[in-house]
User: What shape does this take?
Amino acid sequence: MSRRDVKRQVLAILALENVEEVKRKISDFSPSAVISPLFSGLCSVSETTRHNAIVAFGVVVPTLADENMEAARVVMRRFLWTLNDESGGIGWGAPEAMAEIMASDTRIAKEYLHMLLSYMHGDGEELHQDGNYLELPMLQRGLLWGIARLCEAQKELMLANDVVSDLKGYLTSEDGVVRGLALWCLCLLGDATLRREVSHLQGDTTRFTVMKDGEATHLSTGKLIERYLSGAI
Assistant: This one.
């Protein structure tokens, strides 16, 4: 089968509504054959296709790692490159796909989580710079979506990396969805140490959507803050 045929078939699969069917059908292909089409899927104008591409990366790359860990690392480095200013790209979908992969594979998470977290960090002192802070709110939304996915799937690892401190600054973002996603992450972690910092979100009417188990879940910052402050997390 030609690369063009593979790409056509993969994009058709990514357009399906049933995410379990997407994962099953993608698994029928050789992992190395579908990487490029999945990157194309991340750039689709279709929200369904983009989300399914993210989910599919979480299926394909861990399988690829079982066969050839270095090949899986190449994929992760490709995501990092798309988020690099020098790449000329923007990196849409990269934080989410990286997170989905790491949610499925602890081996990869242990190697690359620090890089994903670096996109939440500003530069430190000259000799200790380690930050790659993403300034665009739309990219921050994708980053926090990914952080939420990992808070759900790799909770202990995220707590061990003190992600709560990283989330604190996003609670005062000018972007309502960013604020809501940061709060959602805290709820997923079961962390109640930022009650004072989140109290200003009372009355926030922001609504946003996350994908959970392949289904769209509609959340309200107002409802989340009530849940957080009541301790029902």
Remarks:
- The CA atoms of residues 176 and 206 lie 6 Å apart.
